[in-house]
Amino acid sequence: MEALFPDAVLTVCEDALASAWSAQDDSEAAIVEFGLAREFVFPLAACKRDPFVGITAALHKLASAEVGLVQILFEPVRNPWGKSVLSALTDNEGKPFFHDAPELLKAAEQKADKALYAVVVRIATRAGEFDRAWAIARNLAAALRVFSNPAGNELIPLHNDDYPFETHEEDVLRRQTRRSGMILTSDELLGFVHLPSAEVSSPKLIRQVAKTKAAPVSFQATNGLLLGHNSHAGRTVEIRLSPDQRVRHAHLIGVHGTGKSTSLFNLISQDIANGEGVAVLDPHGDLIDRVLGSIPDSRIEDVILFDAADEEYSIPFNILSAHSDLEKNLLASDLVSVFQRLSTSWGDQMASVLRNAILAFLESSRGGTLDDLRRFLLDARFREEFLETVRDPAVVFFWRKAFPQLTGNKSVGPVLTRLDEFLAPKTIRYMVSQSVNRLDFAQIMDAGKIFLARLPQGQIGKENAFLLGSLLVTKFQQTTMSRQAQDVAQRRDFWLYVDEFQNFTTPSMTEILTGARKYRLGLVLAHQELQQLERDKELASAVSHCCTRVVFRVGDDDARKLADGFASFAARDLQNLATGQAICRVERSDQDFNLSVPLPPPEDSATAATRRRRIITGSREKYGTPRAAVEAMLRTKAEPIAKPKAQTPAPPPEPAASIPNSSEVPKVTVSE
To answer: How far apart are CA 479 and CA 487, in angstroms?
Structure first.
């Protein structure tokens, strides 16, 4: 069957016919078989219209408790019928035996040139009443009239006088017959045995348009992360990814509502249940809320909830902290890149100003936050005082010598605008304005914590959500690169999930995709359309080389582009995927297969709500700062720097009375 119909999806169904027939045991039945009206050498009509059109129309009228079927049994003939018929129709000289019917020999010669089959055509029906069962049979028989050939042959019903009903019914269910059948050519047989063409249409005709392919045996392991199920030819197997495959990253793409989020949730839930270290960046918040409700009790203490919309507590997140020179350069590069991407106007001067401002804080013994950086750019007195703590003379030289030569506010205006917009929401300002850092990203990765970043763009603003998420990506990249100092055996696997990842792109992300494997950080990146990556060609190229790609239903343009990455699937296969269905390839384009994403078990709303409350409370207590305390700290920091008091010069000393030498004083004589 696979050789005859290579594009068909074959599914093995056990006893489907017997189950449908026996489900109506108390109903009436009708069974009729068909034979040829004339000698078999006369051909049936070559149908210009698909015979299944009429058959499907008749079946479409069946009620829910009725059964109708057209059964075709066939096998190659066992005897050389073609040669025997030609011998019977010609004399010793090869001339027609029947001089009055020369067309008979011509038809026989045409039939003998083709493969011959013994064929049984049978109709069987069931309905609540006897007359109704036969009415259905007549409707189906009428559809067979398309085979009638006025100049050749036609089908006629055969009587059942010598065929008891019980025996006939058993033969239907066993797909066998007591009759020899008709002799048809392969061409005539194809009129009865073929796949329904496109012109056959009925709401009750279920077509499986999705193409399937068996996954390579190497992915059908019992260990590893369950990616989904592969179903092909009636066999369903689990598809799992090994840790080594996972640290080479995964890319998920599909339009909204196709099963992407469900797939992410399944993968995250497995990692958490398996004790793995996980970070999730969610720009909407729904995925995080769902994950919070599913975390097992044994792992609640491992959770760090980074909620950018929490108005009661703020988790300190000071992005301006780094240790090695590599981390400092990486942070400066990423921050400049993020601000440039989110700014409407940008230039070399602005990039230089922001980079040197960031380096000033990274090279300062005093340190600071993004809020301090804004003040550094605005307040010359604060800047001069701060530069006294900067250890890098090149940075100090820039601010004292080069910066004054730049074109005033034009060099800092866009930077300040973006900073002001970012720091405007209090929830974000309170997070990034605390100099203390309670988030130890190295400890999060090495101890296998669960870091859940809820960045709801509807509450904190779209660009703010993207900027904050980009800063988090940079922090994970910093931490990953610091693993160079660790022994390979000490590098624990850690998995970073990023939904709508195109909004969090930084140079760091490209570096992670191309070089983080040896440091055991694996990315799972999800988004909706390829055009979202057009502005960053290097990132798009890196994403295309992810070890695992899972494609849910996509639009026309993306389907054409993505189809090149699959050896066995075309663009139409990517466009026609049902919800929860995907096409996947692992490592190479020829290792592609269809994939279905299982639905997670239903959530117990009460239990999930309790878990969320426990996690929120615990995370606030461990990592958060109450809002009132943050506001008090910010008020203190906002106090202006006191001007040095002017010193009043000391009055000059009063002249001391001089006492002359006695030898120099003239004598005075007093007379009486």
So the answer is: 15
Q: What is the largest CA-CA distance in the chain?
A: 203
Contact indicator for 293, 604 with CB cutoff of 8 Å? no
Q: What's the confidence (pLDDT) of residue 13?
A: 78
Q: What are phi and psi of 502, to 5 degrees?
A: -60, -20
277-282 and 581-586 beta bridge pairing:
unpaired
User: Are the beta carbons of 513 and 523 closer than 8 angstroms?
Assistant: yes
Whose tokens are 């009063």? That residue is: 654
Q: How far is residue 502 CA from its own chain's centroid?
A: 13
From residue 500, how far is each of 64, 127, 528 by CA, in Å?
46, 55, 7
> β-pairing, 277-282 with 494-499?
parallel
SS (HEC) of 226-271: EEEEEEECCEEEEEEECHHHHCCCEEEECCCCCCHHHHHHHHHHHH
Q: Give the end-to-end CA distance of the chain in Å, rounded to a whole number.
A: 164
Strands 548-551 and 581-586, how do they pair? antiparallel
Collapse the DSSP code of 668 into the 3-class scheme (helix H, G, I; strand E, B; otherwise coil) and give the result.
coil
What single letter denotes the amino acid at residue 537?
K
Collapsing DSSP to helix, strand or coil, 354 comes out as helix
The residue to which tokens 């096409």 are assigned: 583
Given the DSSP bridges, would you call strands 182-185 and 235-241 parallel, antiparallel or unpaired? unpaired
What token pair was written down for 152?
A: 């050749």
For residue 160, what are the contacts with CB-CB under 8 A and spacing of at least 6? 31, 32, 168
Q: Helix H segments across 519-555? A: 537-544
C-beta atoms surrounding 614 within 10 Å? 16
Calpha distance 300→327 (Å, rounded): 31
Cα–Cα distance measured from residue 574 to residue 581, given in angstroms and rounded to the nearest whole number: 10
What backbone phi and psi angles, to 5 degrees, belong to 308? -70, -10
Does residue 178 contact residue 171 with C-beta atoms inside 8 Å? yes
Q: Where are the domains of the chain?
A: 16-190
Mapping DSSP to helix (H, G, I), strand (E, B) and coil, where does residue 305 land? strand
- The rounded distance, in Å, linking the Cα atoms of 669 and 667 is 7
Residue type, 321: S
- As a whole number of angstroms, the distance between CA 455 and CA 466 comes to 8
Orientation of helix 413-423 relative to helix 348-362, angle to 10°:
60
Q: What whole-number distance in Å separates Cα of residue 614 and Cα of residue 251?
A: 33
Alpha helices by DSSP H, listed for 64-178, are 81-89, 102-112, 130-143, 165-174
Regions of the chain with pLDDT less than 70: 2, 6-9, 82-83, 86-105, 208-209, 342, 344-345, 407-411, 639-672
Whether the model clears a pTM of 0.90, i.e. scores above it, the answer is no
Q: What angle do CA 626, 627, 630 make, to 5 degrees?
A: 95
Q: Round to whole Å and give the CA distance between 407 and 350.
A: 10
